[in-house]
Predict the structure.
Amino acid sequence: MITWSKDRAEAAQRILGSYPERRSAVMPLLYVAMAEYGYVSEQAMRDVAELTGLTPVQVSSVASFYTMYKREEVGRYLVSVCTSVSCHLLGGDDVLHAVEAETGVPHGETGPDGTFSVEHVECIGACGGAPAVQVNYELIEGVTPEKAVELCQWLNATEPDPLLGDEMQALFGGQRSFDWGPSESTGSKGPVPAFGPYSTAGTDRLAGP
Amino acid sequence: MSERVTITVDGIPLEVDAGELLIKAAEDNGTYIPRFCWHPRMKPVGMCRMCLVEVEGPRGILLTTSCNMPVSDGMVVHTESETVKKAQEGILEFLLINHPLDCPVCDRGGECPLQDQTLSHGPGESRFVEEKRHFEKPIPISDLVLLDRERCILCARCTRFSDEVSGDPLIEFQSRGNNTQVLTFPDEPFASYFSGNTVQICPVGALTSKPYRFRARPWDLEKTESTCPHCSVGCSIEVHTSQNEVIRYQGVDNDDVNWGWLCDKGRYSFESVNSAERLDTPLIRNASGQLEPASWPDAMEAAATGLASIVEAHGGNSVAGIGGARGSNESAYAFGKFMRTIIGTNHLDAQLGDGLDPHFLVGSTPRGVINDLDTAKTIVLWGPDLKEELPVLYLRVRHAAQQGAKLIVIHPRRTGLDDRATFKVVYKPGEGPALLNKLVEGDPGLAEVRAAINEGPVVGLVGRTGLTEDPRLAEAVAAFLRELPKATLMPLARRSNVYGALDMGVSPRLLPGRVSSASESGKAALREHWGSLPDDFGRDTIGIIDGLADGHLKGLVMMGSDPVRDVPSGNRAAEALSRAEFVVAIDTFLNDSAAAADVVFPALGFTEQEGTVTNLEGRVQKVTQAAPGPGQARPDWSILEDLAHRMGGSIGATSVNVLFKEIVTVAPAYRGLTWVDLEFGEGRDGLVMPLEEGDQPIQYVAVDPGLAPTKAPLALHSARTLYDDGVHTRFGPSLERLVGAPMAYLHPDDAARLGIPDGGEVDVETVQGSARVQVGFDPSLAPGTVFVPFNQGIGQNLGSAVEVKLEVVS
Amino acid sequence: MKILTSRMDAHPSDSHTISRYLATGGYRSLKKALSMEPADIIAEVKASNLRGRGGAGFPCGVKWGFLADVHPRYLVVNGDESEPGTFKDRQLLERDPHQLLEGVIISSHALGVNHAFIYIRGEYPKPARRVQQALADAYASGYVGRNILGSGFDLDITVHLGAGAYICGEETALLNSLEGRRGEPRLKPPFPAVEGLYGKPTIVNNVETLSNMPWIVENGGAAYAAIGPEGSSGTRLFSLSGHVRRPGNHEIVMGMTFGELIEDLGGGIRDGRAIKAFIPGGASAPWFTADHLDVPVTIDDVAKAGSMLGSGAIVVMDETTDVVKAALSVVSFFAHESCGQCTPCREGTTWLENMLRRLTVGQGRAVDLDLLLDVSDNISPGLAWPPRQTTICPLGPSAVSPVLSILTHFRDEVEALVTTGVSS
Ligand SMILES: Cc1cc2nc3c(=O)[nH]c(=O)nc-3n(C[C@H](O)[C@H](O)[C@H](O)COP(=O)(O)O)c2cc1C
Ligand code: SF4
Ligand code: FES
């Protein structure tokens, strides 16, 4: 039995309708389920299985393939530090260590109070602004170890919600890969990426014949 | 015939079928290319990379996997070049760096492709100094299977089998890259009817089965080819024994039948062969009414005297025989001959009231074979849930549907094939005839189905969807289907050698060799061989039970049958047995029916006797002796011969060979069959015995009997499930646990209407009996249907009546 | 000359909006394309000599020509951009999403496609939001949907988000991912153009490749082919990163040398240091050294010099770089991103990673250098360029590139690690 909020249950039906085959909806539905439960719980995978007609293990087989589907509870702020080659060359590892030291959370783990999860990630496409960090998948480029520490302190102190990438970039970022243009008021609400509305189709998908 | 092309493998020109996979073409011509992930019965995935070869092409020499490379004319292949060898050694080294060195304690040690290939293709010593991957050592993933992820080489054979072949995707790869592992979902065990196949095809010891674990070392095993006796599909198997004990069955790849697969019931039923509960001495009912062990002469004397006195007092046709479907053709033939010539009765039946018209079952025309499925455009299944009743036929249908055949499934409930069906039609029991009429008449609501059915070649799989269904509906369905383009029919009955027993004439309506018992010329021909043949009408099993119950019949001989458990109205069968004056049972177990007998003879069972069996296609295959059998148990035909002797006659059953020779002389449809053919010739995959005009065997042309639908406010659907209360599950410790709890299933809307909660208790009542059970919801049912699995402790009390009432208890 | 980035350069504050797009000539090419025969559009694309910008550099028109004559058929946009060093598609998605959409609609019309998919990596929420908004606006304005601009042509576009798997950039892994499966590359043949998404003929193209379509339709294939040197026509967006003064994306006409690109566009090496090595085309590419600064930036020249232009990502390392650690970073990337289905990649990349890690922490052995090479050889036999492979897809051999690069160009540094036990 699926107990998602009405909005999410409706989104799920829209998503299922966006593909020629139901199975294709597994990934977007996992995002919806992750938003619902905060992470991809066993129940989340059972729900997605029910919606797509797969078995739960087929869903977990897919979910466990992709690193963004977190199968354990995640902190309010998921801090992801890039350590791939361009960031590595410009000190990504130091940024990671600074974040670990400031939050007291080693990479791959979540702090006991549930505020932070820390991870090092592979290239997030911000090499021109290395080293790069994402918080709840919102990007900050050109982060120094010092700025990373301030970022963590700020998150802890102000508990921003939603979390805006442009704001964080202005406060803690530096060199960017390119001009970002105007700033946005859309941001993430919780440790799931904020592409919305968890729909993957054009919003005005054609109805009828 | 496919086109032939010439390829060159290691300098040798070979002529092979165009488009065949290189790995197979090479192997069939003597060049074995090593492999782990490739399996001839599954789609290639090219994952292990062990089968690398070099192929010369327009753009130079290409290093490529041979398991997914179709051959083409002029292809030049090197399987042993330096590059190939180096690459293969490299792959093997990669596979071994994380593989534990526990061959001495591994079930697979001695028959392990990884071990073998390491010896023949592997590098000498390990250059890997890093830490190996660690996982928790074997974890149970079902009641039958254990998984050791450290040994796993991630060939995906098990996951692919479960997903593609058996349709139970319950084990899958998890995580990725170097952390990839095979696993089940928490609390969702690998409960597949086919799980044993994954153990068999695992190329290492990652998957092991509980019933076999640590029981033997491969080099100690003796291997005997035989045929699985557990349903009428007749899968080819190898019986493995060690020190005269059956240790396991392995599937054998029979092109025409099972492709190497088995169901778990068949595979693990060997445990019942070794059961301590097996009958190993004759039993006689003593003065105080208890069965007690007796000597063979005493038991023979008692049985012969008991039967003879009834025959003397009331005539031969006051005695009946039930059985024959669980043994070999030779036993069945002996049984029929014993009943007809020694006792002098035509009351004999191998079916237990769950079957179809015997003429229809063995004489339907045009009769199809399993391989027809692969060339069919359309498959219509209006009959049992094959996954439950004929599991490996289910796999073959599934495969055909996956290859593009249109599959139409018509059944009162969900079936295992629904996910592959182009169309699924659900109907309420009793309303089958109305549905058929709509289909025949081109009802607009069924237009799409009808259009799909009209494309041939069509294979019609027809049988009873359940035990409350009028058997004549199947005939009406067949009458419709056989008129479709290039149609062939496969009438379906499930019990092991029931087709063989019917072919041997164990039916009131049949004589050996698919001859009607109404055929005067057939009777005359048989009398020539047998000397005598009773002329009276004969009763089928239900008639026999009625006759015993109302006193028209006095005596009963059962051979390998358990009417109390297996007849749709089991309580009535029990009552009939208790009324009978004298009952003889020949069996391997003291089942519920045998327990009511006056004399019980211990018989040798499967793996303990030679003989032939006949499957649902009419294919004759061999069964072979592999173990001695318990105590004083004897072949059933020889027990019958002894009994005949004591009664002053003989059925000439001095050996299986003699019986076989008599069958191929006496039974028209079996004429010309030789033992040698079956054992060595092209008949190793079995020989389908066709009907031949000259001998006038029956050629049953299905006609629509014109049934009226039965309208019932609540209708009962009662059908068998794979694991039931039969002896082979009950007396096998591993399978026993898999039998479901007795339940009745309702559509949730009906339950709501009747105010029955999920898990509530009800009394289910038909005119034939009642049972108190828990209720489960099943939205796949047509509204107005009650589904009760048969023979899980309750179904048999409800009989075959369609109309049913529910009384809510709680 | 700029094709792809001129709008965002001129209108930094709103280049992503439909109003700006329309005000700057947007969807004009679509109107033109809808009045053309599909075959004529394909002919223009062929004439343009546009080569794929996703990495393999396959001529786009030729690929389109392979599309099997079966319907339905699909167009899939590869926006999974995850090759370390690459961030060009991100800019195109974020700053000019309509340009891509127009390219997708034109291409779908040309290819007879009625359902296209845009696969964007999950780590790109902002680009995804922009594309989703642009798509909603395009639907609302009738550029996507039923009977587009009255032409009778119907098209649905679905945006599909990845979830953290580099391998999904490989086109067949991407298709599996889109089908709701693990992102494992498929065996080829069959190629997607014959059997792709849902087993139907499918064209997979990179974001940048398709973003060129409005220009090509507007100006003609010949005009596009005339830009830049033969074999590398058109402009291309290069991602420059590492130890340069001015990292970032640069749209250029190909043909200048790497030295010029790094010096003139990248502002040279930071802190006045010297260059030690650079990766010319994303993490999969074999490394170049200072000796290669004269190589012209064209697909064919780079290939001739033993590497590839790949995804157009140039990663520059200065003289202070610990190349073993840098190589370790790249190898562990591939080990982490291996899908794990094929043996040599699953086992071999992790083995290489473990050995390099041991080297960097002073636990290397003299035999490890040859072992590194031999394990590499078992993934990529002959260690040649272009690589042969024992694997299903090129990811495994990609992990070999950095190993081979440091052992070819900086073997003494690696050897020093073994003897002294410390990173120099
Ligand atoms: C391991 C691997 C990763 C790849 N990643 C990407 C990618 O992120 N984006 C991309 O466009 N192409 C990527 N490709 C190339 C695609 O497979 C494919 O060639 C490309 O999307 C085709 O588009 P194009 O012809 O327009 O370049 C990758 C290939 C491989 C082997
Ligand atoms: S080379 Fe690596 S990524 Fe590619 S298919 Fe094989 S295991 Fe997967
Ligand atoms: S047998 Fe060919 S790759 Fe495994």
User: Anything to note?
Assistant: Chain C has three domains: 8-225, 235-318, 323-420. Residues C 167, 185, 338-342, 345-346, 391-393, 395-396 surround iron/sulfur cluster (ligand 2) (CB under 6 Å). The two ends of chain C are 44 Å apart (CA to CA).
